[in-house]
Design goal:
127 residues; Arc Repressor Mutant, subunit A
């Protein structure tokens, strides 16, 4: 079963946008030019995919002349965390899902998780 992530082209486009860095905007033309150098793709395909990402809430946009400038509404890490939350919520018994997830971790990942659990969370700080 696949959780609600991105389609193949959506993932490629979001990766390009995230790689531009925080606070950077881009146009369909800029993304199209990059992708067209690597694959056979139509401008309208890129345009409709970016419009779909906007409709789904992954991209924000504002008009700049005749074009739109796009930027992500979430960081890559925030999106990954949302997918993890969705997997945990839809995976049956959350305690078993977490147990199986933890069993797959290596020592370095486990150490990073323990360190993250020791840090105060935003949610705890709001109490």
């Amino acid at each position: 079963m696949r959780t609600r992530g991105f389609g193949e082209l959506e993932a490629v486009i979001m990766d390009r946008i995230w790689n531009r860095g925080s606070g950077t905007t881009t146009t369909v033309r800029e993304i199209f030019d990059e992708l067209a150098a690597e694959r056979d793709i139509a401008y309208t395909t890129v345009m409709s995919t970016m419009d779909n990402l906007h409709s789904k809430g992954y991209l924000a946009r504002e008009r700049d002349g005749k074009a739109y400038r796009y930027w992500p509404t979430l960081t890559r890490e925030q999106h990954s965390a949302s997918l993890m939350r969705e997997a945990l919520d839809s995976g049956g018994q959350p305690d078993l899902v977490l147990t199986y997830f933890l069993e797959q971790m290596g020592p370095e990942e486990s150490a990073r998780l323990r360190a993250a659990l020791r840090r105060p969370t935003r949610r705890a700080a709001k109490r």
